[in-house]
Write a structure and sequence with these properties.
Length: 708
């Protein structure tokens, strides 16, 4: 048994190693000139003005003046990690892509998660869609699979993207609100552009306030193509399934977490990887034979539609493990450039008009954001295989291209670089036929905007539906314009009347029978403000895969467990719980009335991870309080009761031993004895099983009157 819980050795040794400056690391200017004073600028006399000739000062300052690059216009706030992708079985029947056919490969990946609307410094727990971008460094070149944590997108045609983004970003006159969709301009747009209603409903679900980036599904959204060595193609949709399950927090917690730790998701991902509890996702494919393209009740080229997993099952084909944190945020996470047009042989595009528009935007924005045409040479963006072509020069060219030839065909370079032969896996596009008149139009097959959000709402658990009612009510409640609120209610009513009436009640409004929608502003075919009910088709009664509960996991990797203790706590109870939780890869944090150390009943000193005043219960997944003499001291701490009441209110697992039950008796968790997620002198394994289930949502209704 360890006498204390000081951080172990390896980390400290690593830190100490880092702190020792290798002998040859003398400070220099960017031109390599050694510097012997980095504290004082060159002056005319000790009290005199700085001199312009001071090239060391000038260089330092002018470099600093240019340290920022433009932030991404969307997805500005992000966190990333390195990892590997391993394939379970060869998919050569469908594709010739090496990383999807060779099971012996460990393909390196770099993954960036992001929020969409907030600026770079915005808080992590904003209600928002999360980006999920994966760069595969394959032997045949880089492949980017850029997805979101929702299976559909807001719009059908890229032409509307700037409008969508302008509407959700802070309003242009006062730049309010930051990282929030709950404002007039967004709902003005959403209520007009009814194609947005489906993804908007996903944004109103708890998926938009994830517990952790490690606990989110990922979706490539668009239909792509896979192409095999014979040139035969099929359609595909990509999925990432998290092995830790899909979990969210409640909106009330999200608001508190943003205040307690606005880097909550970034820290969680970083800490889990540092602790060696590597997040994992399985890659899943929905494969649709070409001949089935038109067989669905919706158009598979429409990015606002999902293909229910009950109709086309997700085939699990491999696993991605994130096992290394970046060394430098700017160099890697900030400079990473993802692009849906970055594909390798074996993967190709469909005619989805939204996808086609993205193929232009990403490269275009990166040339601007990363300062020129050579951003592929930045280490994080470089492929692992060699690059040879006749592209030359440009800003920040780092290659020294040799020889006279920079054109093709040539004889001066012996015809090099030569063209790839088909047998060498050169990229060839699927020769899909396109014969059409040029039109500015939307396909009639894209016109149903209500059936899939209706399916989503029907498929959720009652607690998920309740959270959604609250989310719509909060968001619309923040709008100041009644006509916008009413236009939204009108649209929601076409999806689900019960949802609309509950939200209307919370807003103190009535669901209108008709709305004023100038015909030249309506985008959806059914958005003209007529009083026709929405044309909701029921091609599937329910899709259980749409509920967050569909992935079951018994893992609690890097879950944060708060242990409340003070001098005199019961060492035996503490140690057996800690050992069990740590054997399950959870992170146990000792929280006490003060920092430094506390003594257990066996007289040993234990390092306190956080003093009560520096931390908040919303940052933890579960609460454990060992009994002992410590309880008298804890009884005098108001924050202890805040911990218990909040853990109870937010439906978390709580375990106590011995006289720690007195704390529960004095808390607001009055009927703790009947709760299946509360353990008095229980088995540590029952406690960890409850943590893996995440929350006891059955408690929520009962606990809602608790004031914290
Ligand atoms: Fe993006 N999107 N997007 N988007 N997107 C960008 O590219 C854009 C769309 C997504 O971690 C930008 O380099 C258009 C769908 C992610 O660096 C920009 C359209 C999906 C990320 C851009 C879409 C996404 C971006 C901003 C409609 C889900 C973060 C900076 C035609 C499949 C990538 C940049 C990262 C980033 C444009 C629609 C996801 C401006 C025009 C659909 C995860 O180019």
């Amino acid at each position: 048994m360890k006498k204390d819980n000081k951080p172990t050795s390896k980390k400290i040794q690593d830190l100490e190693k880092d702190m020792k400056c290798p002998i040859d690391h003398t400070m220099t200017t960017n031109d390599g000139v050694k510097i012997n004073d980095d504290n004082n600028s060159l002056k005319a006399g000790e009290r005199g003005p700085s001199l312009l000739e001071d090239f060391i000062h000038r260089e330092k300052m002018s470099h600093f003046d240019r340290e920022r690059i433009p932030e991404r216009v969307v997805h500005a706030r992000g966190s990333a990690a390195h990892g590997i992708f391993e394939l379970y079985e060869s998919l050569e029947e469908y594709t010739k892509a090496g990383f999807l056919t060779d099971t012996s490969r460990k393909t390196p990946v770099f993954v960036r998660f992001s929020t969409v609307a907030g600026f770079r410094g915005s808080p992590d727990l904003a209600r928002d869609i999360r980006g999920f971008s994966v760069k595969f460094y394959t032997e045949e070149g880089n492949y980017d699979l850029i997805g979101n944590n929702t299976p559909v997108f807001f719009i059908q045609d890229g032409m509307k993207f700037p409008d969508l983004v302008h509407s959700v970003k802070p309003e242009p006159d006062n730049q309010i609100p930051q990282a929030a969709s709950a404002h007039d301009t967004f709902y003005d747009f959403v209520s007009h552009a009814t194609e947005t209603l489906h993804n908007h409903m996903w944004a109103m679900s708890d998926r938009a306030i994830p517990r952790s980036l490690r606990m989110m599904e990922g979706f490539g959204i668009h239909t792509f193509r896979l192409v095999n060595a014979e040139g035969k193609s099929c359609f595909v949709r990509f999925h990432w399934k998290p092995l830790l399950g899909i979990h969210g927090v409640t909106w009330e917690e999200a608001v508190k977490i943003n205040g307690a730790d606005s880097d909550y998701h970034r820290r969680d991902l970083w800490d889990a990887i540092e602790a060696g509890h590597y997040p994992e996702w399985e890659l899943g494919l929905q494969i649709i034979p070409e001949e089935d393209e038109m067989k669905f009740d919706f158009d598979i080229l429409d990015a606002t539609k999902l293909i229910p997993e009950e109709i086309v099952p997700v085939k699990i084909v491999g696993k991605m493990t994130l096992n290394r944190n970046p060394e430098n945020f700017f160099a890697e996470t900030e400079q990473a450039a993802f692009h849906p047009g970055r594909v390798v042989p074996g993967i190709d595009f469909s005619d989805d008009p939204l996808l086609q528009s993205r193929l232009f935007s990403y490269h275009d924005t990166q040339i601007y954001r990363l300062g020129g045409a050579n951003f592929n040479q930045i280490p994080i963006n470089r492929p692992i295989n060699e690059v040879h072509n006749n592209q030359r020069d440009g800003q920040f060219q780092t290659q020294i291209h040799k020889g006279k030839s920079s054109y093709f065909p040539n004889s001066l370079a012996g015809g090099c670089p030569h063209l790839a032969k088909m047998a060498e896996g050169g990229f060839t596009s699927v020769p899909a036929p396109v014969a059409a008149h040029k039109v500015r139009a939307r396909s009639e097959s894209f016109s149903d905007h209500y059936s899939q959000p209706a399916l989503l709402f029907r498929s959720l658990q009652p607690w998920e539906q309740n959270h959604m009612v609250n989310a719509y009510s909060f968001e619309l409640g923040k709008c100041t314009q009644q006509h916008i609120q009413e236009r939204m209610l009108f649209q929601i009513n076409k999806i689900n009347e019960d949802l609309a009436s509950k939200v209307a009640k919370n807003l103190g409004l009535k669901v209108p029978n008709s709305i004023d929608m100038p015909i030249n502003q309506a985008i959806g075919a059914d958005a003209d403000g007529s009083d026709q009910p929405g044309d909701v088709k029921v091609y599937l009664e329910k899709s259980p895969a749409l509920s967050m509960t569909h992935i079951k996991s018994d893992r609690i990797d890097a879950r944060m467990i708060a242990v409340l203790a003070a001098d005199g706590f019961n060492m035996k109870d503490y140690q057996s719980m800690k050992d069990h939780l740590e054997s399950k890869n959870a992170m146990v944090k000792l929280i006490a009335p003060h920092g430094g150390t506390i003594k257990c009943d066996e007289g040993m000193e234990h390092k306190v991870d956080a003093a009560l005043m520096t931390t908040e219960s919303v940052l933890y997944d579960a609460l454990f309080i060992p009994g002992g003499k410590s309880i008298d001291a804890l009884m005098k701490e108001a924050k202890v009761f805040k911990f218990i009441d909040e853990s109870y209110k937010y439906c978390k697992a709580i375990a106590v031993t011995d006289n720690a039950e007195d704390l529960l008796k004095n808390s607001q968790a009055k009927d703790y004895k009947e709760d299946k997620f509360i353990f008095i002198d229980g088995e540590p394994s029952d406690f960890s099983a409850a943590i893996a289930k995440h929350r006891n949502w059955d408690r929520e209704e009962k606990a809602k009157m608790i004031s914290v």
